[in-house]
Amino acid sequence: MIELLELPFMQRALIAGALVGALASYFGVFVVQRRLSFLGSGLAHAAFGGVALGLLLQAEPLWIAVPFTVAVAAGINWIRDTTILSGDTAVGIFFAVSMALGVVFVSLGRNTVDAFTYLFGSVLVVTWTDILLAAALLLVCGLTSRWWSRWAYATFDSELAKSDRLAVRFDDYLLSVLLAVSIVVSVKLVGILLVAAFLVLPAASSRLITTRFVTTTVIAIALGVLTAVTGLIISYYADIPSGATIILVQAGAFIAASIIGRTRGLGT
């Protein structure tokens, strides 16, 4: 264990794992409760277009993927709010277009190896910049805790929240934007193909063992941090991909939560 902590890339990976585990789980409870899992998957795949564009431009992919994915999140909300199309349809459109653009950008740039790394995640590509961005976003969530209560209110009764003159539409846009940024920050660690599961599994596990939303959030964050760090440690000693290992650890936690929930008469 001491040997692992002496490696600079593992130090970065463990810190990033704890931060993005907390971050993804914080937003994951809203994704699960609002049944927006497809939105999480769509934004994750949209991030691929931004990453591929960054690789093509030979720029830091993170700085291209963030505005790209935020624009997609805003576009999905705009189509849902201003047309007769459903949110799922809007996600499907942007999902396909972003992936198509990503494939074109990768083929133009010939950066298939780098693209592969972002698709499946790697602890070797995590930088202090990624850590600082995750920490900043987590700090924003902490400093703007009042948004949590507004999002929670609208999650359970959107119409009542509107009648209380809360800016529900603006809050939804803000939630989607912050969700998009948290997904991009998580991509390097778990990969584009697995980040949707990283977003959902801790929140879903927590939802199975408690009925109070605030407790669900706290447990989800704890599970997100614990499973991310545990998965990274296992992946190092077993010499297997970190992203896949984290997701499998989270799947194990989900199975355990299902059993606990059934014994307590919850989650059914």
Task: Describe this structure as you would to a colleague.
- The protein has 268 residues and is mainly α.
- It has helices at 2-5, 8-33, 37-56, 61-82, 87-109, 112-120, 128-143, 146-156, 158-163, 168-190, 195-209, 213-238, 242-263.
- It has one domain (2-262): ABC transporter involved in vitamin B12 uptake, BtuC, CATH 1.10.3470.10.
- The protein contains 13 helices and no strands.
- The mean pLDDT is 86.
Break the fold down into its secondary structure elements and pairings.
Blueprint: H1 2-5, H2 8-33, H3 37-56, H4 61-82, H5 87-109, H6 112-120, H7 128-143, H8 146-156, H9 158-163, H10 168-190, H11 195-209, H12 213-238, H13 242-263
Helix pairs in contact: 2-7, 2-10, 2-11, 2-12, 3-4, 3-5, 3-6, 3-10, 3-11, 4-5, 4-10, 6-10, 7-10, 8-10, 10-11, 11-12, 11-13, 12-13
Brief synopsis:
With 268 residues, this protein is mainly alpha-helical. 83% of the residues lie in helices and 0% in strands.
